Amino acid sequence: MGTRALFSAAGAGLALIGLSCSWLNTIDACDEDPTEVRINQRGDQSEFTNSPQAAAALLDSNRLWVAFVAQPVDATASEVRLASLNAITGERTLACGDQFELTVSDPSTLAYAASVAPVDLLVAGQAAKGALAWMEGKVETRARLRFFDGATCGLGNPFYVYDGTQLTSGPSIAWSPTKHALLAAFHDTHKVFFTWVTDTTPPAPQQLSEAFSVLGLTATSIAPNGRGIVGWAEYADVTSLTESRPKFRVALLGPDGAVMAGPNGAAEPFTVEFPAAFEKGTAGLTVASRDDRHAIALSLATSELAREVVYVTEISAVDGHTLVPPYRVDPDTGGAHFYPSLAYAPEGSLVVAWQTADRAGTVARLFDDRGRPRFNAVSCDDAPFPVGARATEAMQGRPSILFTEGRLWIAHPGQPGYDSVAMGAVGWRMEWSKLWPAR
Question: Can you give the pTM of this predicted structure?
Answer without folding.
Answer: 0.91
